[in-house]
Design a protein that fits this description.
Radius of gyration: 29 Å
Structural class: mainly beta
Number of helices: 1
Number of domains: 2
CATH class of the largest domain: Mainly Beta
Order of helices and strands: EEEEEEEEHEEEEE
Distance between the termini: 48 Å
Oligomer: single chain
Largest sheet: 5 strands, mixed
Strand order of the largest sheet: 1-8-7-3-4
Strand content: 35-45%
């Protein structure tokens, strides 16, 4: 599960006796949060709250902020510790990963790689290419020189002389059709 940085994550969990019945814990249950493969808690033994009207059900909330030690891209485990009938039990409530913070509540932040990228090389665009490569082809087609002699469109490299891609153009009864883009020249 991905949870955005700076979210307040709310959760509930019930405590059970040895027969599986939901019962109140002997003392207030706590939760702890661990980062990836470490054995040191980021948050340790934070008290949970008994819910009103529900015996044995407890709730907790954790602020997933950088100030609390959470980092984008890392995995975390949220564990609950409770004592019922003198027996201590530890249960993993959730394992989650921190995503970038949302700019608007409920809307994930979408980022693109802002590093400079070269133009796609000469050749036919692939069918199963990544989204950034698809954007590269669109930008190249928009930016660079193009020619069309009525039967073929040529798409040039940045140098303006090398034909990297081409596309057939045909007309029949007033309908213009364009073929798939293939490798130049």
């Amino acid at each position: 599960m991905m949870i955005p940085l700076d979210e307040v994550f709310h959760f509930r969990r019930a405590t059970h006796d040895a027969t599986g019945q939901v019962v109140a814990a002997d003392s207030t249950p706590t939760y702890s949060v661990f980062e990836e493969a470490t054995d040191t808690e980021i948050l340790e033994d934070v008290s949970m709250t008994a819910t009103s009207g529900e015996t044995g059900v407890y709730r907790g909330a954790v602020t997933l902020s950088a100030a609390n030690g959470f980092e984008v891209g890392k995995w975390y485990s949220l564990l609950m510790t409770a004592v019922v009938d003198g027996i201590t039990a530890i249960e993993t409530i959730l394992e989650f990963r921190i995503a970038p913070a949302e700019t608007v509540a409920g809307v994930p932040l979408v980022t693109l790689n802002n590093e400079a990228r070269g133009e796609p090389a000469q050749g036919a665009p692939g069918v199963s290419i990544g989204p950034l490569t698809k954007l590269d082809y669109l930008y190249k087609a928009w930016r660079n020189r193009k020619t069309n002699d009525g039967t073929e469109t040529k798409f040039f490299a940045d140098d303006g002389t090398t034909v990297d891609h081409k596309q057939t153009t045909a007309e029949s009864s007033g309908t213009v059709s364009k073929g798939e883009i293939v490798s130049g020249p």
